[in-house]
Amino acid sequence: MFAPTISTCKAPLSHLLQRCRRPTSLSSLTKQLCRHHERHSHSRLVLGIETTCDDTGAAVMDETGRVLAERLHTQKRIHAKNGGIIPPLAQALHRQFIDPVVQGTIKDAGIEMKDLSAVALSTMPGMPLSLRVGLDYTKDMLLRHPHLPLIPIHHMEAHALTVRMVERVDFPFLVLLVSGGNCILAVARGVGDFKVLGVTWDDAPGEAFDKVARRLKLQHHPDCLGLCGGQAIEKMAENGNFRLLIERGVPMSRHRDCNFSFAGLKNMANWLIQHHEVRQGLTASDDHHLATISDIAASFQHKVTQHLVIRIARAMLYCQQTGLIPEGNQTLVVSGGVASNDYIRKALDFTTSLFKYKLICPPPYLCTDNGVMIAWAGVERLRLDMGFAEDPQSLRFQPKMPLGEDISEQVTEANIKIKRIKFW
Ligand code: KG4
């Protein structure tokens, strides 16, 4: 695990030096500094808590990024059976599991609350009912441990920063966040400093994967039991022919920007499914699966990939033209649930290499929601001594919150044309 050299006592040391206003002998200052160093030389610990959507996660991490313990209760299987997330059910499950998840993590880490230096909590963006559980629980915990600072975390920023826990990735870098609720292409310039090149105008890619998977009834397919929509499509696509939609255009091809649209692709897949149902004498409510299910899954996945590839190619050219990413730092980080899709990863790998960019995806288990990424985002802030909530008890969650400054119009003005990129 990448463990950068850090000064664990930078901020407290500056406090100490500020306090030494009275003339102090050198030896007394040295003694104070030694005592100070003893107190702060151990790595500080952060507890991360995640409840933005359908995962209740917690992790304890030290400042070097070492995970002491983590626990995760995922509701994905339950929601998969219902064919989608039911927010009140998600809330009830968070309420049921948050205490065992958090307390279990602390116990597994072999620590007590007094050993922690901060609590990091994802407070934005996300589903209001889910966010509320994490915030209420944390506020209650902090009433009993008022010494602990709270670091509110932007869930999507946590996805963007996770990679720095496992690999050396310096700012600035290009980052694509693709999940069940978001699609964001941005330049990460620093902790809490993002420039957003584009976002989805309608569905998120994971949402489109989930809806097409449901329309294909993959939750009942013997090869896909327990898989989420995206995983099920990827699995079915393995042996499929991706050319069924090859004659169809790619979304937003007339918009020379870095925004996305997945609703049209979802409708295109739904049209294809209906067309094949008619041809094969099936109806949508039929228990049988289409004989061409793999081809449809592969074709949909291919179209999503094509769309992502074009927008990313434009982003790389834009960053090159504007100097937003200096030469030598050309890295694209891709994270979020959809980033665990191997087909998409391979196509992005090909595309980034064309533009002399390095593609980095965190390992799949870190691409989906978890407490580790929240703890890491907390560590990043703790190291910089920034981002603490002034009054944790009056903190509110924010269901919607942009990741950073929107520069999508500047991208449109740059009017960058992208030629077709043939990744296979
Ligand atoms: O980041 P994530 O765990 O959290 C939410 O946004 O909830 O992403 C979950 C999304 C789901 O929509 C799921 O279908 C999608 O990521 N996903 C995938 C794959 N694995 C998960 N989509 C495509 N291919 C995959 N292998």
UniProtKB/TrEMBL annotation:
Cofactor(s) the record lists: a divalent metal cation
Keywords assigned: Acyltransferase, Metal-binding, Mitochondrion, Transferase, Transit peptide, tRNA processing
Mitochondrion listed as a keyword: yes
Domain Gcp-like: 67-376
Leading EC class: transferase
Catalysed transformations (reactions): L-threonylcarbamoyladenylate + adenosine(37) in tRNA = N(6)-L-threonylcarbamoyladenosine(37) in tRNA + AMP + H(+)
Physiological role: Required for the formation of a threonylcarbamoyl group on adenosine at position 37 (t(6)A37) in mitochondrial tRNAs that read codons beginning with adenine. Probably involved in the transfer of the threonylcarbamoyl moiety of threonylcarbamoyl-AMP (TC-AMP) to the N6 group of A37. Involved in mitochondrial genome maintenance.
Name of the protein this chain belongs to: N(6)-L-threonylcarbamoyladenine synthase
Species per Swiss-Prot/TrEMBL record: Strongylocentrotus purpuratus
Upper classification of the organism: Eukaryota, Metazoa, Echinodermata, Eleutherozoa, Echinozoa
